[in-house]
Design a protein that fits this description.
Elements (H helix, E strand, L loop, with lengths): L13 E3 L25 E3 L32 E3 L3 E10 L2 E10 L4 H11 L3 H5 L11 E6 L2 E5 L9 H15 L7 E3 L20 E5 L5 E2 L3 E7 L5 E8 L4 E8 L8 E7 L7 E10 L6 E11 L4
Parallel strand pairs: 7-8, 10-16
Antiparallel strand pairs: 1-2, 3-4, 4-5, 6-7, 9-11, 11-14, 12-13, 12-15, 15-16
Length: about 300
């Protein structure tokens, strides 16, 4: 496949590691769900690879650790000091968008995730357009052979076909992060459980899995996710509170035009003081060079020389 590198005027000089091959979207290729593939990396010249800042709980909600469902799923991302980090899939502009919560550890991770999904986005996440269509009351009644069976509350398919499908997608993408869950049945007699592939078309062109809204970051910040963009080129810039560009980089996703691939890039920045800022991930338009499919993540930035 012919690779087109964006103009040097728009993008800084970086060292690229080109990923090999392309692959279609498959269940479990985002977040801590099973079956993930290793993303490509790119590091700006002179910057040492870093690690993402620890996930936070921007919503400030603390579900009861003692609440245990009938058949709890194991999983989530282990975190220090008796906590667990779970990935939640909310909606924005009719598409799925991920965020994270770090909460007190519990065996009931499936219920924890569903409770947080129903509680909805934090004020900071809401300000970016995130929302939830999932009502409270969802219960996992059984997990067997990779299938989580739910007892869904009334109104599962309310609001029309589009909303109903997006609601189901939120639940499927959230629950399949756990190693014991690969598909979700929405009733005991559901003969066709759903997996991530069934809702892959609801992903936006660019998905950002890290950093999350409200994360505290240091330089270089590690930006990860998946993308289905022209010639696989994913661009990132870091902005200070005034909107000034203080760091840029780009990389190639593991798959180019017409398919979705993982990406990972380390972006260095310089700022004299700590404070709020934004990490923007976007595609450079092949038509006019403008930034398109922009995903803006508000963060708290450490000072960096």
């Amino acid at each position: 496949m012919r690779r087109v590198i964006p103009p040097l005027a728009a993008l800084p000089f970086v060292a690229l590691l080109l990923p090999a091959g392309c692959a279609p979207v498959r269940t479990g290729n985002l977040g801590p769900a099973p079956g993930g593939s290793s993303p490509a990396t790119a590091t700006p010249t002179g910057a040492a690879p870093g690690t993402p800042a620890p996930a936070t709980s921007p919503g400030g909600r603390t579900p009861s650790p003692s609440a245990v469902p009938t058949a709890p799923a194991s999983g989530g991302t282990p975190s220090p000091e008796g906590t667990v980090t779970v990935q939640l899939w909310f909606t924005r502009d009719g598409r799925l968008v991920p965020t994270r919560r770090t909460l007190p550890a519990t065996l009931a991770t499936s219920r924890l995730a569903l409770t947080e999904l129903a509680a909805g986005p934090s004020p900071a996440e809401t300000a970016t357009g995130m929302a939830t269509l999932v009502p409270p009351g969802w219960q996992v009644t059984r997990i067997a052979n990779g299938v989580a069976t739910l007892a869904a509350p009334a109104g599962l398919d309310g609001g029309g076909a589009t909303s109903a499908r997006l609601r189901r997608a939120q639940v499927v993408w959230t629950l399949t992060q756990f190693p014991t869950v690969r598909r979700v049945a929405f009733a005991a007699d559901d003969a066709t459980p759903s997996g991530r592939d069934d809702y892959a078309d609801l992903l936006p062109p660019i998905v950002v899995t890290a950093p999350a809204v409200g994360d505290r970051i240091t330089s270089p910040v590690t930006v990860t996710g998946t993308a289905a963009v022209f010639e696989a080129t994913v661009s990132v810039r870091v902005l200070d509170a005034a909107g000034r560009e203080i760091g840029t980089a780009f990389t190639l996703a593991a798959c180019g035009s017409g398919c979705r691939g993982d990406y990972r890039v380390h972006v260095g920045y310089r700022r004299a003081t700590a404070g709020p800022g934004t990490v923007e991930v976007y595609e450079v338009s092949a038509r006019d060079g403008s930034r398109v499919h922009v995903v803006a993540i508000p963060v708290v930035m450490a000072a960096a020389g």
